[in-house]
Amino acid sequence: MIPELGQFALILALLLAVAQCVLPILGAQLGNRALIAVARPAVAGQAVFVVLAFAILAYAFVTQDFSVAYVAQNSNSLLPWYYRLTAVWGAHEGSMLLWVLVLNLWTVAVAAFSRRLPDDFIARVLGVLGFISFGFLLFMVLTSNPFLRELPMPADGNDLNPVLQDPGMIVHPPMLYMGFVGFSVAFSFAIASLLGGNLDVAWVRWARPWTNVAWAFLTLGIALGSWWAYYELGWGGWWFWDPVENSSFMPWLVGTALIHSQAVTEKRGSFRAWTQLLAIFAFSLSLLGTFLVRSGVLTSVHSFAADPKRGLFILCFLAIVIGGSLLLYALRAPKVAGGEPFAAVSRETLLLVNNLMFTVAAAMVLLGTLYPMIGDAFDLGRISIGPPYFGFMFVLLMLPVVLLLPFGPFIKWRAGDWRTAVGRLRPALWGAAALTIVAIVIARTLADGLPLRAIAGVAASVWVGLGIVLYALHRWRTLPRGRRYTPEMLGMICAHFGVAVFVAGVLVVEATSVEKDVRLAPNQSVTIGALDFRFDGVKDAQGPNFRAQQGTLSVLKDGNVVATLHPQKRVYVRNQQPQTESAIDPGLFRDIYVALGEPIGTDGAWAVRVYVKPFVRWIWLGALFMMLGGFIAAVDRRFRALPAAKAQPAREPMAPPAVAAEANA
Amino acid sequence: MNARLLPFAGFVLLLALLGFGIWWSSSHDLREVPSPLIGKPAPAFALPLLHDPSKTLGSKELAGQPYLLNVFASWCVACRDEHPILMQQGKSLGIKLVGFNYKDDANDAKRWLAQFGDPYDVVVADLPGDVAIDFGVTGAPETFLVDAGGIVRYKYISPITPAIIATELLPRIASLKQEGR
Predict the structure, then answer these.
(1) Same domain, residue pair B46 and B117
(2) Do B22 and A575 make contact, defined as CB atoms within 8 angstroms?
(3) How many structural domains are present in chain B?
(4) pLDDT at position B28, please?
(5) Bond preceding residue A152 cis, omega within 30 of 0
(6) Which end of chain B is more exposed for a tag (fewer CB within 10 A), N or C?
(7) Which residues span the domain enclosing B140?
(8) CA–CA gap between residue A61 and residue A55 (Å, rounded)
(9) B30 CB within 8 Å of a chain A CB
(10) Are residues B52 and B116 part of one domain?
(11) Which residues of B touch A281 (CB under 8 A)?
């Protein structure tokens, strides 16, 4: 009975989504205050039912209700309770429910924190969000109902995909969805401004903190996914240019462009139409990502739930949402470039370069991801474009971004001056040169020297890092206390510092990591650099729902054990699924990574993969700095201030509905 | 023309491509990407039997004699084209034919085999598709020839035809027999 309640809840949420979409937008067009007032209660009601549906599905997992087909497919009586909870979003139906849940959380937040915005504007925003929610709820009800029963009830469940039985998987999808779905707020702000025709830049100021927060969550989600792939898939790689990774990366790239162009539009009034277009693009790419993952048009290690019928539905939905908003943009976007004029050397120009590079990079990733399909369409044969294409193109496009980044803050709005900026940045140039030489010397004495890519990485990283530190010092010297580090400025400094850390991590690990596949008999050793890896044999181990063969490797430096690692080869009881569990000795300057291959021969020897990865943690550390920057910038009080009273004609305040309590709870 | 229509026009092109992708992936399953596994050991696996999930079969049990691993699924349209050929010629190949049921509901697969006939000596089921990832399976049908030492000798993507059996599979199977592998 309880799972059926879940389905009822979904259907009720669907109906409320219709109300939330149609009535407020109609009300805003007609100027009907009663219809506009429907928006917030509809938001609250829909959120209640979606939360209820999600809770019911979670309850079915926790109580092991295997009569629900989705539970039976993705859980098992031996599955520990915490993985039972994460199994809720372990496959297609549940992850769609999580998508809708996250969308409702964002919508409630928008409804709650937008009381000072004009009623008709926020009614349109909530209406657009309601339409998106409607599409996804309809999708679930029609093609992916998580509450379907399987009768007769199976005695036991099929178990969660072993790859997903991992702490990283608990947080990765929710964070990713917070980012994906968060762009829906900037999107609906842009659409609302197009619908209402109020093309002043006020909406951009209100949208900025939302975009920053969404971008920060997406950064965290992608970083977690990369970290998870690194230790769980057992390949030691941190980014594969896999279609699913790409589909989360494209919104990030456009989102990065968007947060910069929003800054220009809000402060200078320039790039208005462009900012609207980017807001549409960022969310469209999130939707497209969902389509690519769910429709089965592209194969990928992640697409465990692909089905062409679902693909067709999402395609129609994409056509309506993206096609409709782009058409609206074509008809209603401001025809005249507004804003203040700027010179060739100005912060505007630099941010334009940033926007251009990030948008082109997103287009490049999109093209590469869709390339196999293009090959089919023109009968060129199925050509997969691998990491070489993406790696080369991406580095090429990001090179100007990294080189120009330190100039950004030093060049003034409207008309800047190269010479002063170069003068202020001179210490960073010298510092980059000096530290690079130091790095080369150190590497030469310790190992076989640094390859060119690592040298370039160190130089670029120091250049960006010092450049941003110099800017922080410059503000300290030239501005009075209180105006030096507003949250917006601090967030910018933090995120750009993250870029420096990230660049160092990527280029050093790509150029200098050592990977060896070796056959090791017990007590045999292999040497990598200054480290000896001694294989101490394999023993049996037992987990809650798996048996494992657990190897022991001692890592020695100068005869002293510095780490003992226990990689496992697991076999999950239910499906007899083998699963490689790598073991990692993490460190700020190097990771030691070992994974068991297969047993070879009869003397207890195994194929063992041994990796040494210098600076690999810096990749995720950099991403964390960027994320932190996004969050810090979002709390700036300036964004919450209303523009001059003209945007808000005197009106009687709307009766506060129950949403506020809801959102604060 | 209004330049503001350009993003929309671009999107229409993209939409056409995606629609084509859906049509294509539901009508074909041909993926011509060469396998890096050829000449290398087949990945170790252990999968439940389709007809008796309490038992498993894997690389360990299969070692010692050559076998043909055929990836199929009830949802796969192309597998239906391939199926009659396996029914006719499967037994005369002189090699163990292992059915690899890929990302399929067990009941659907059983029904499918009951309806069209079961050419396989044994069928294993890979519902999550993890072993398929290890094999580098990109779609169904795909066929792998593995020798007695567990080395992948040949891989064919898309439905097997009588011509492929005559020109590619039979000579390879004969030479495996001669080598005694």
Answers:
(1) yes
(2) no
(3) 2
(4) 52
(5) yes
(6) N
(7) 37-179
(8) 10
(9) yes
(10) yes
(11) 7
